[in-house]
Structure formats: structure tokens, C-alpha cells
Amino acid sequence: MPMADSNSSSHLSTISNYRTFRQAARERLLHEMLRSAKGGGSASDWKVLIMDEVTVKVMSYSCKMADITEEGISLVEDLNKRRQPLPALDAVYFIRPTRESVQKFRADMAGRSPLYKRAYVFFSSPVQKDLLQTIKGDMTLLPRIAALREMNLEFLTIDSQAFSTDSERALEQLFGEHSEGTRDFDACISTIACRLSTVFASLKELPVVRYRAARSALADAGSMTTARDLVPTKLAACLWDHLMKYKNTLRGFPTTETCELVIVDRSIDPIAPVIHEWTFDAMCHDLLNMEGNKYVYEITTSTGRAEKKEVLLEEHDPIWVELRHLHIADANLRLSEKMSQFGTKNKAAQIRLGSKDGHELSTRDMQKMVQALPQYREQLDKLSLHIDIATKLNDKIKENVLSDIGNLEQDFVFGDASSKELINILSTNQLCGRT
Fold it and tell me: Which of 312, 307, 283 is nearest to 295 (CA)?
């Protein structure tokens, strides 16, 4: 076989085996964890799923409630809250391997009256040996453990092509004024490295780790190097330690490098913290007080009652996928076009409403159409959702004079504005807020 054909075949095989971050996380959570806990039980063998404040995010970003119910989970509980004993049911614990979590697990399952019949325990990252010995050394606990395993999955799948280590205070803990030499600094590096390593453990990839050297070392070998300068170096070293442990202990993990990882710090892009994003996605998260990707809005039912509705702005919604990376002005135009196209294409809707051919539909017309034509409800609901979002964003922009602030940010970036102008616009906005 010619070499070209062999490479083509290998390339096609790689494409067919490709999985997104969300697919990889979802498959591991549902199949490797929940399905393995089913064992040989019947379909009626329901279990309780217990998670902590981090693992519940990991699960919710990758799976829906329907997914985990299908795998035999009847109830989801919080490890940190008091729970009702269910001694007839088995429990699946998906928790971090912290001392506090292990203590709470032992309190649940040890002693004469455990909360659950048996426990399937899955840790989100590698567990320390002393904690493992504590579990194994508890003779009342050990017979009640049906499984004890490291899942090595502790990252949030933001969408199919992006993930997060959920380190909200990283900027403060790593680059803050008094961050150097603190316990928070070391803990933040360790947490990010550990969670980042679980991404590669889930994808079964061993990266070549490249990182940005300290700026002072690049500029002048004799200058002082601070902890902030060494963030990429420290993170790379900590991550590599985790990867080497996986290489030696994790079944199926590569023994040679399969990809590349580049670690940089904020100094390569100092503009980003100064200027706000004006894309549809970014403005939703900045202005609408969303919890993750969950958006809550009010709808009017066919009976005229106002009801609150929750939706997830994710990739199953084609309109969201189309709009999310557009500038807010372009998103407004695109929505306007979609409203017009809907009215033009759905001639039956126009006839039922008594409108003329080609008439541009208003928001009120759309509401009438929803009530009159149930067959268009799903399509119109999605369109109405994003019109509602865009309307709220535009109202916030006007209310807070954000266009002026956005222009000022750009002027700062290009060196066309002074601190006096910044103080002036902030003072004006404060006065407006008081009146």
C-alpha cells in the first residue's frame, strides 16, 4: 500500500475517533461511572447520586437530568447537606478526594446505621494515600463499599470546544498585590494543574508541555524574578508531575507525547482585562445575571398569565450557536432578518392572521401566531427567546450608557483617551445612578 494511502487512512481514523470535550466527559460520567454501578441489577434497581459543590457542576455541564435518570439514578443529593436515610438503596458518590469529603462519606456509611445499603465511590481526581488507607482501615465501612475508583474528571465543559477549571479567584490568587508566597497561590496552582491533568486523562492524550518563560529571565538574567513571572513555569511543572503519574498508573494512557499544550499568562494579552467583549454570548453573561448557561425569562401563556421559564443557552439551540459569537449589533440585525424570513416563508401563518404577503411581523404578531398556529410554536419559541434576550441587552446598554464606556475603552487601548475622560464618564454615571 502506498504511504499516502496509509496516511489518509490513519487521518480518517483519527477524525472518526475524534470526541469533543463534552462528549468525552458525558460518555465517561454516564458509561464508566453510572452504568458500571448498575452491575447486574434490574431496571428497577434505583440508586441515589451524591455530589459536592464542584462535582455537581462537572455533572450538570455535561449531562442532563434525563441522562442520569436513564442510568438508574432516582435522586440527586448534596454531600454537604443533611440527608434522609435510605437504607434500602445503594448510593453513587461522585466527590472530590478532600479530607472533608472523605470524612462526610465515612459518616454516611460507617457505624451501625448507614444512610445507604452500599456505596459506589468515584473520586474526581487522584486520592492521597493516607486518605485511601483511612478508608481501607475502617472495618465497618469496607464491606459496604461496592466500588472505589478514581474517575480523574474534574473540569467543566463550557461547550463542545471549550472547558474551564472553574478557578474564579485565579487572577486574584496568582497575580494579586499580596499573592506572592501565600498558601492561596500554591493551592491555586495545584488545583488548576490537577483539573487540567484530568482533561488529558479523559481524552487519553499525553501532551508536550510548552510554557512561557519568566519575562525577567528573558530580558535580563540578572534581574529579580517574581512569583507572578513564574506562574506558567510552576503550572507546567505541577501539571507534568500529574501527567507522569497517569503515564505510570493509568491504563490506556499514552507512553509517548500525542499532542501539544502551550501555557501562557495574561502578559501576552494585556488588553483583554481592560476592554469588554461585545459579542452576544459575552454580553449575556455580563449583563443578565445568568447562572452558568441558565437563562430565566417571563412568558405570557395562552390564558394571559405570566410565567417564568428556564432555558439552557447551549449548542442544542441552533439560533444560539449562530448568534453567540456575533457582535451585539450584528446579532440584532440577524434576529430582525430571521423575523422577516419567518413571516415570508410561512405563508399559511400570514393567511391565518389575515396579513398581506411579505408583511414584516412585529413581536405582537409573533405572539398571535404562536397562539393561532401550534405547528410553528417550537420555532417561534426559540426565536422569541432570543428576541427577549436581545431586547434586555439593548435596554441595559442604554440604561447604563455602555456604548460610551465601550468607545472609551477602545480609545484607551489605542491611546486616544486620558484618565481625565475616564474619571469624567464614571462621575457622570454615578450622578445618573443617584437621581
Answer: 312
Between 137 and 269, name the one with better pLDDT. Answer: 137
CA 48, CA 72: separation in Å to the nearest integer? 9
Q: How far apart are CA 275 and CA 63, in angstroms?
A: 33
| Block residue for cell numbers 493509568 | 250
Alpha carbon 61 to its chain centroid, in Å, reads 5
d(CA 272, CA 96): 32
Task: Look at residue 295 in the predicted model and tell me its pLDDT.
Answer: 92
pLDDT, tens digit (0-9, with 9 covering 90-100), for 101-160: 999 999 999 888 999 999 999 999 999 999 999 999 999 999 999 999 999 999 999 888
Provide the 3-class DSSP secondary structure of residue 272. Answer: coil
pLDDT above 70: percentage of residues in the chain: 80
Question: Which residue, chain included where needed, has cell 469533543?
Answer: 20
Judge whether 116 and 84 are in contact, CB under 8 Å. no
* DSSP 8-state assignment for residue 426: H
**pTM of the model as a whole:** 0.78
CA nearest neighbour of 182 among 193, 195, 172, 167: 172
Alpha carbon dihedral 11, 16, 19, 24, in 10-degree steps, equals -130
> How many Cβ atoms are within 10 Å of 187's Cβ, its own excluded?
11
CB 149 within 8 A of CB 119: no
Element containing residue 294 per DSSP (H, E): strand 294-300
Cell 530580558 sits at which residue? 219
* C-alpha grid cell, residue 94: 461522585
On whether the CB atoms of residues 68 and 37 are closer than 8 A, the answer is no
Residue 432, SS3? helix
User: What digits encode the pLDDT tens for the residues 1-40?
Assistant: 333 343 444 443 444 466 789 999 999 999 999 999 986 5
> Residue 261 and residue 209: Cα distance in Å, rounded?
5
For residue 149, list its beta bridge partners: 122
pLDDT digits 0-9 by tens, 304-346? 788 888 898 988 899 999 999 999 999 999 999 988 887 676 6
| DSSP output for 139-165 | TTTGGGEEEEEE-----EEEETTEEE-
Residue 333 · residue 327 · CB < 8 Å:
no
Q: What angle do CA 365, 324, 53 make, to 5 degrees?
A: 110
